Amino acid sequence: MKKMRTANVMPVATLASLMLLLLLLSVVAVLAICPPMCSCGKGHRVVDCSTHGLSLLPDSLQHNIHSLNLSHNRLQNLDGLLGRFAHLRTLDISHNHLRHLPVGLPRALWDINASANHIRQLEKNDTAYHWNLQSLDLSNNQLERVVFINNTLPSLRALNLSHNKFWTVPTNMPHKLEVVDLSHNFLLQILPGSLDRMSQLARFYLHANRFTSLSETVFNRLEALQLLTLGDNPWACEEEENITNLLNWVQRTSAKVLGCPCYIRSTCGEAHLATGRTWHSASYTEPPLGADARDASHDAGHRPPMQAVTAGYLSKSALLNSPHDRSLGNASGAGEITKHGGLLTSTPNSPLTSTTWSTKKAGTGKIRSTSVPTHTCSPHSVTLSFLGAAVILSAF
């Protein structure tokens, strides 16, 4: 009889232990939704695992997370590890050691920041299925070429390829782009037809490259262009045949052009503002451009995540969800920070404060220094002015 009771008690005790164990496991699972090295918010759907020296993707991440920050770590390969996050909208993998864009990224992504890695090329399959992607930041890498397939990336509005190693402006860029940043590269040319399909391009950053001349026809199809930056390029101003047409175009375009080739003014264009007076007498208040910011290394500094910095220039990119009527320049010289749906970019003030600019004299290889004179009034002229006024008043 005792044996039978013992036999009945044992299964009950075992069942209770199993239930307790399951309860403990469920509690641990709930507590482990946010990995210990990360911080989470908004119901554990916004996860920040940045600046922890991680070399592996943290465990225990929820499948329904919306935002994941893995920046400033030591990640080398994320191939096939992020595809399970089907609801992921924002991914920051900047400042790591990645040599290519991870394979199998979620197709629901809106924003990808992969800046400051060691990525050398972008293959066609890397972005072929990202129909929802709006912002792609690949700045501060080692890119020499990117390959886009026709009619892919239909939602992409902002593309940052600054601080890379491009020699030619990439062809076949997504045709609905509104902002393209190709500053701080080694660009020498824009192939004919490269920009013909980009009728919505509003801001185009080409400063700090190696252009010596450009055909004005390359910009003819950019009907929505609002801002073009051309400063800090070694323009061949003495070769009048090659440069004259471009100079004429920057004068008559309605877009703002920062860094006018061969001119002492920092700003030109905006032909509609010069009504009733010549281009040279138009009023421009923007500070001068930086002398040369190409020294910024490809691994320069630890910049804040989701932020691409273009040193030595006034205005910067991004144009997604914000109104299009924002100011294109900052006359106060305080620099500009603009956020448009995920691509956050900023630029410090120009380091050049002198009013003296060096330009090449046409027809010679010499450099001519041109400065804007400052007029001051001497005490004698002030005295004569007062005497003249006194004489006129005494006559009445």
Give a written overview of the molecule.
The chain is α/β, with parallel strands linked by helices and 396 residues long. The chain has helices at 2-31, 240-252, 379-395; strands at residues 39-41, 46-48, 67-69, 90-92, 111-113, 121-122, 135-137, 145-146, 158-160, 179-181, 203-205, 227-229, 256-258, 267-269, 307-309, 336-340, 343-347, 356-360, 367-371. The strands form four sheets. It has a twelve-stranded mixed β-sheet. Strands 15-17-16 form a three-stranded mixed β-sheet, with no helix packed on it. The protein is elongated.
The share of residues in extended strands comes to 15-25%
- What is the helical fraction, as a range of percent? 10-25%
Extract low-pLDDT stretches.
27-32, 274-378
CA-based gyration radius: 29 Å
Q: H/E order of the elements?
A: HEEEEEEEEEEEEHEEEEEEEH
Counting DSSP H or I runs of 4 or more residues, the number of helices is 3
Number of strands: 19
Distance, first to last CA: 138 Å
Mean pLDDT score = 74
Short description:
This protein is α/β, with parallel strands linked by helices and 396 residues long. The protein has helices spanning 2-31, 240-252, 379-395, and strands spanning 39-41, 46-48, 67-69, 90-92, 111-113, 121-122, 135-137, 145-146, 158-160, 179-181, 203-205, 227-229, 256-258, 267-269, 307-309, 336-340, 343-347, 356-360, 367-371.
